[in-house]
Amino acid sequence: MGLNLFNIKEDPARPSPREIYNWRVYVLAIAASWGSAAFGYDSAFIGGTLGLTSFKNDFGIDSTSSTGLQARIVSTFQAGCFFGAILIYFFNELYGRRRSLLLAGTVFNVGVILQLCSAHRIGMLYAGRALAGLGIGSSSLVIPQYISECAPAGIRGGLIGMFEILLQIGTVFGFWINYGVNKNMAATRSQWQIPVAIQFIPINLMIIIMYFMIETPRWLVLKGREEQALKNLTWLRQLPADHSYIQNEMAEYRAQLEHEMHITNGTGLGAIIRESFSPQIRSRIFIGCGLQLAQNTTGINAINYFSPSIFEAIGFSGTSVGLLATGVYGLVKTAFSTFSFIVLVDRFGRRPLLLIGSAGCILSLYYLSGFSSITHSFSDSATGGPASRAAIAMIYIYAMFYATSWNLSWIVCAEIFPTRVRSFCLVLTTCWQWLGQFIVVYSTPYMIEHITYGTFLFFGSCTVIAFFAIWLFLPETKGVSLENMDLLFEKRGLAWVKRREYDVVMEARRSGTVTEVSSQSDASGVAGEPEKEERNLVEMA
Predict the structure, then answer these.
(1) Where is region (Disordered) located (predicted)?
(2) How confident is residue 313, by pLDDT bands cut at 50, 70 and 90?
(3) Is residue 488 within 8 Å of 511, Cβ to Cβ?
(4) Which pairs count as long-range contacts for 363-366, CB under 8 Å and 24+ apart, including other chains?
């Protein structure tokens, strides 16, 4: 009996067995995604914790040192994440996705211990933040990859979306924990240590459950361990080894691997780098890196990490009131993220949600910029009234549109690359995510202090650029198997042309009428000749 929780409408001409939508794939996705809950919790709790009186007292933070110190404490974590994504690559390739997640969780735990023991020792706090970042950066590379390599194509978006759902749940807890300790605890050391210690919960849930999970069949095939791959795949799909669906999926793994080996004619890191920057894959790297960078330049992490300052600038005054508003903001993001991944992403696709969500973010950010410019709210307290209430509403509207759209960047990056080079390509895209976060969280305190309303204007304008880039260059990947991504991205033309021609090929394959389809247009819309590489790919598929 299947558990198609995402209510996918499948192609009636090629239905999948209902057994593949079973409880095991959901448990696997949730187990791995507890690591992203730790990531989300950090992005939420640290901004509020920096504002607690007890934390300021223990680390000697005053108004003159606040801006620079906050920027360094927060951004040290992002720096650790950047290098964690790079360093885990080699372990991930040699020992697999599951063991990589266990290692990442262990490193994160060491970082949290250092943070807890760091009172009056700012250097130890930096070290703890950096080590925690190493762990989160490592897991952020592996979690989407692990889930994508285990998920059935029909619910892949929703399952990878567990990464973001758990991230947003962690965010909510981070916001509300700070509100709780601020309201109910005296300004002693325990007040800031409790939010830090809670980081142990999600990461150790990941470690415990992942200990009982399996390695991905695709990685096992990549390592030549086909017997174990078949065993793991039958466990995941709850189908016998001789079932046609299992046999076809294993055949697709082998065919894709042989195709990639044929293209590069070699093994080792050098061959993987050459394949990654080949014309067939290079454009996907640009798309993935661009999406991860653009996700940060929408301004989301500026609000996540420095929400008390942002809310104060548009009318909330007082630490407690600012933390309450931040907690509600986290609830809005979580609710709409969950709705998006369970209901929308595998029904309507990635591209429409990104375009609609970007438009909503742009309008919200431009309103906030105009409001702050006219009322001088960054330097003077907002006076209330309809315009001020609308500004407060715009923060929540922004959260709604962001949560239903830009969280999808992790999904797109996890699914568009071929198996053999997926880890290396994800190192690049994930590093751009953490580089973008580092730039944004380090710059935001200075932007708020010096360019005030220009902060919203900058992020809104960056989102305009991202909107047009998605419209032109990102084809829809909904329903495309990982092994058929080559067929989608090797089409010529702009985004909508690629998907249209891909659908023509797949329809021809289903009907058995043709085995060769020519490219209808190139990027400029001019008719092109059939491509030899495309013919080979279609025939092999």
Answers:
(1) 515-541
(2) confident
(3) no
(4) 364/394, 364/395, 364/397, 364/398, 364/401, 365/299, 365/398, 365/456, 365/457, 365/459, 365/460, 365/463, 366/456, 366/457, 366/460
CB atoms within 10 A of CB 319: 18
- Three-state DSSP string of 222-257: HCCCHHHHHHHHHHHHCCCCCCHHHHHHHHHHHHHH
List Cα–Cα distances, 364 to 100, 173, 358, 371, in angstroms. Answer: 39, 25, 10, 11
Residues 6+ apart with CB under 8 A from 304: 43, 44, 47, 171
Task: Please give the Cα distance from 185 to 180 (Å, whole number).
Answer: 8
Give the ranges where 317-383 is alpha helix by DSSP (H): 319-339, 345-348, 350-375
Q: Which residue has the higher pLDDT, 213 or 71?
A: 213
Q: What is the pLDDT of residues 201-218, one digit of tens each?
A: 999 999 999 999 999 999
Q: Closest by alpha carbon to 362, among 390, 315, 402, 311?
A: 402
The residue among 83 and 376 whose pLDDT is bigger is 83
For residues 302 and 395, is the Cβ–Cβ distance under 8 A? no
Q: So what CATH class is 18-213+274-473?
A: mainly alpha
Predicted confidence (pLDDT) at residue 522 exceeds the cutoff of 50 = no
Give dist(CA 132, CA 198) in Å, integer: 13
- Residue range 186-200: mean pLDDT, rounded: 92
